[in-house]
Amino acid sequence: MPDRYTHQKKGDAVATENATRTRPATRQKRTEILRAAVDIFGTKGSANGTLADVAEQVGMTHAGILHHFGSKQNLLLEMLAFRDQADVEDLVEQHIPGGPELFLHLVRTAFVNAQRPGIVQAYTVMSAESITDDHPAREYFEERYSTLRREITEAFSELCAQEGVTDQSTVSSAAAAILAVMDGLQLQWLLHPGVVELGETSQFAIRAIVNAVLKPGPELETYAQG
Amino acid sequence: MPDRYTHQKKGDAVATENATRTRPATRQKRTEILRAAVDIFGTKGSANGTLADVAEQVGMTHAGILHHFGSKQNLLLEMLAFRDQADVEDLVEQHIPGGPELFLHLVRTAFVNAQRPGIVQAYTVMSAESITDDHPAREYFEERYSTLRREITEAFSELCAQEGVTDQSTVSSAAAAILAVMDGLQLQWLLHPGVVELGETSQFAIRAIVNAVLKPGPELETYAQG
DNA sequence: GTGAGATTACCGACAAGTCAGTAAGCTTGG
DNA sequence: CCAAGCTTACTGACTTGTCGGTAATCTCAC
């Protein structure tokens, strides 16, 4: 597999929307395919979902999908990039906020996600699958988590400065923990949609972690009966 | 759920070690296969890992595996049950503690898990895969999370009573959140073993959540600059 | 304790189906 | 007319599960 992430012959950047090459209807069709891919691979997983499944949903044969995306692996990667793009489009300003605002943004994201189980499911399944051997999305998720942890860590730094807290020993743990609750709650919410409330619970947990950074409470051992 | 998980023809209880039917060497072989299954399906996922992969690791053909477990689905289910059993065996008293001790037990579990990435990976991949359509382990994980949330909720009740806290409105959120961080941190730890510290970070997060139940800090909006 | 008959453990071969990817050709917008 | 979009037809690689057969092991009458 030579150029792993795209099947386009020329080495042009993926992001550059090459208008000369593609008809407008084609761009639309590609988007339709990507949406179907989110649905299929979210519902059946990336290994069990097939190109034929995706093709059927857009009224095509699987060879048609391959015409557009070259390979299944490439379709999966473009699907993840597509989700990111769709995420940012939701934001009024096309940029994720920094500083203390970030925590509110994360909570809002959790509430938004509660309205779109399909995408959440695709993301949850793919992220866990990515830890398997030679998974196409491994690098994608490694970068994603690194980036998000860094952004959250920076937000904590700003917050600590603002609140006059000097001990920043817990911020890296807290950053990882915030991402972790959000992911873990998504899984439980997908398993028990009526029982676990994604938005509210995420809000509670993020608040708990943020407050613990600013003012750590007693140690757990305190509560064990001695 | 007794005999549903085995392909044995007679409806005898699984737990009763039927010495007459199985040779001691066979029991050993079965365990060996289950261990190999944890390795293979943890490394490659349940859909991508094959019976032949498992068979090769124990020096057999895939037909031999099917002789012992009847079907791939059954092998997967027995593998999960096997992990649970191995978990409990680690405990000195064969029972998960209740009350405030439970939180310390969960932290200890996180530290123990940091020593066995293979099993953690299998569990992480399978739990996420379980939300896909008609996954064999779906029911297993639904029950698992329900049970664990209930146990943690009960532990919170005891803790609240002990500490004189009457407002228990957050305990169900907290129970889900604790499981969520543990799961989510496992994923990040598997992606970045050197960066994320499973034990320490879990400890921090669980402490943060427990303390938030007993004494909720300020709301997140407090920190946003006005 | 031993030999006959049953049961278990496993293999080799194969059946049946699935899936990604390829090649060649039809169709149609521009 | 010609390239992009798509199909039909096909291949080769896998995979689960089945089936007979074989060798090892167990049971038990004698």
Describe the structure concisely.
The structure is a homodimer of 226-residue chains. Chain A is built from nine helices and no strands. Chain A has 226 residues and is mainly α.
Features:
homodimer, 226 residues, mainly alpha, 9 helices, disordered N terminus, DNA-binding
Can you put this structure into words, describing what you see?
Chain A is an all-alpha fold and 226 residues long. Chain A is 64% helix and 0% strand. The first copy, chain A, has helices at residues 24-44, 51-57, 62-69, 72-90, 101-113, 117-129, 138-163, 171-191, 198-214. Chain A binds a DNA duplex (30 and 30 nucleotides) through helix 1 and helix 3.
Layout of secondary structure:
The structure is a homodimer of 226-residue chains.
Chain A: H1 24-44, H2 51-57, H3 62-69, H4 72-90, H5 101-113, H6 117-129, H7 138-163, H8 171-191, H9 198-214
Chain A binds a DNA duplex (30 and 30 nucleotides) through α1 and α3.
> Which structural class is indicated by helix and strand composition of chain A?
mainly alpha
Overall spatial form of chain A: elongated
Number of strands of chain A: 0
Mean pLDDT of chain A: 86
| SSE order of chain A | HHHHHHHHH
* End-to-end distance of chain A: 61 Å
Largest interface by residue count? A-B, 73 and 73 residues
Strand content of chain A: under 5%
Spans of at least 5 consecutive residues with low confidence of chain A: 1-20
| Major sheet summary line of chain A | none
Which quaternary structure do these chains form?
homodimer
Helix-residue proportion of chain A: 55-70%
In angstroms, what is the radius of gyration of chain A?
A: 20 Å
**How many H/I helical runs of chain A?**
9
